[in-house]
Amino acid sequence: MRVLLIGINYAPDLIGVAKYNAELCESLAAEGHEVKVITAPPYYPTWKIPPAFKSSYFRSRDIDGVRVRRTPIYVPGNPSGAKRLVHHASFALTSAAPVLFEALTWRPDVMIAVAPSLMSAAFVSFVARRVGAKSWLHVQDFEVDAAFDLGLLRNPSLRKWMLRAEATILKSFDHVSSISLAMVERLRIKGLAPDKTAEVRNWIDTNAICPGSRATKYRQELKLGGGHIVALYSGTMSNKQGLELVIEAAIGLEKSHPHIHFILAGEGPHKMRLEQLAAGHGNIHFLGLQPNDSFNELMATADFHLIPQKAAAADLVLPSKLGAIFASARPVIAMAEEGTGLAAEVTNAGLVIPPGDSSALEIAICQLSEERALREHYGEEGRRRALDRWDRQTIVRRWSEAMTGQGNTTGQKNTGLKNATGNIGLPVEDAVRLP
């Protein structure tokens, strides 16, 4: 099978969508498929393009068995709502010619577009129809909903126009998948038929991320001993996370619980602001983006992990870090409303508290810091879920089978697709429920 993936993010970016785009393509190539990628240069989460990539636009190179071509892109230093629109539009514009060239000369069997960026996806489905390829859109987050619900864009007329354009793009693809059952349900609300939708959750390498000792180099560097409790946030530091609540909770607990320390590891446009808020408080520590070979040790540093989230972000995205947290056998405190996909994933493997409530966050942190047996119980359950539901090899294999038309779980001949009554990310017996 020949697979052409078009997505704005790809390796060597280490986090977010880039990681899953790269691992999907590498896994497909390892199975013997021919895989090509059209993408932008790395820029995330620092929103800066490394100098080495500015001179290699439109050139192709092999990366772990995948042929990767990069196109120019506008990257704003301060990614406001309007600048993000220009950012995505620039990739849609510069990627169009390479997409058309590869489609006409290479004749892929499947063309996969990844959202973000939805703007470039419209051209992918158009070209796929012309060359007889299957078209598949994979939605990592709902860009339009997020932009307006989080306040990045505010014009009501613009929102209506963008939602209509989004609906047209979604319906133009043969198959549309997303990373959680709640997000698949949102696809149905947006007008997609159940037999066109599927859940393909973000995976984790459960061999690379596994339970480890708390005595890590990070604790040594920060002078934290075995008696210190560590609450860890690892990931992008942007608007949708609501990380100010973590800083607020840390400051509130500094005097009453001096043994609890907070580590925020990663990069993003809000990091400088968070560092300013935390200035002068010795229980708050910042780390940069950590390399892959140190990631498991970073995860093991925590006694428990934090997933703060604004209420407006509910079911717009399922945090990809959740799989790694579960695989590391550590509990999690997640901010999510009852009934959301995130709440369903975390229940019985951690604590779920209302989004935006720093007092509830403080109470949850104190509870887990004081109850070691509860932490161990949640950690064991999380590890079990990681093995059952988030294993990379299993999910990628099922996705590959769906693309080639080999799988069939809905009784439809050769669809190869687990629709909203089933899914690719879970075993068949778990397809219609999340424990």
Would you kindly provide a written description of the structure presented here, covering whatever features stand out?
The chain is of the alpha/beta class and 435 residues long. The chain has two domains: 2-173, Rossmann fold (3-Layer(aba) Sandwich); 217-389, Rossmann fold. It contains 15 helices and 14 strands. The protein has helices spanning 17-30, 81-106, 118-131, 143-149, 156-171, 181-189, 217-221, 244-253, 271-278, 292-301, 321-327, 341-346, 358-370, 372-389, 392-404, and strands spanning 2-6, 34-39, 60-63, 66-70, 110-115, 134-139, 175-178, 197-199, 229-234, 260-265, 284-287, 304-307, 332-335, 350-353. The strands form two sheets. The protein has an eight-stranded mixed β-sheet, with helices on both faces. Helix 3 links the parallel strand 5 and strand 6. Helix 2 packs parallel to helix 3 (118-131), helix 8 packs across helix 13 (358-370) and helix 11 packs across helix 14 (372-389). The radius of gyration is 21 Å and the shape is globular. It starts with a strand and ends in a 31-residue tail after the last helix.
Fold topology:
Blueprint (H helix, E strand, L loop, with lengths): L1 E5 L10 H14 L3 E6 L20 E4 L2 E5 L10 H26 L3 E6 L2 H14 L2 E6 L3 H7 L6 H16 L3 E4 L2 H9 L7 E3 L17 H5 L7 E6 L9 H10 L6 E6 L5 H8 L5 E4 L4 H10 L2 E4 L13 H7 L4 E4 L5 H6 L3 E4 L4 H13 L1 H18 L2 H13 L31
Parallel strand pairs: 1-2, 1-5, 2-4, 5-6, 6-7, 7-8, 9-10, 9-12, 10-11, 12-13, 13-14
Antiparallel strand pairs: 3-4
Helix pairs in contact: 2-3, 8-13, 11-14
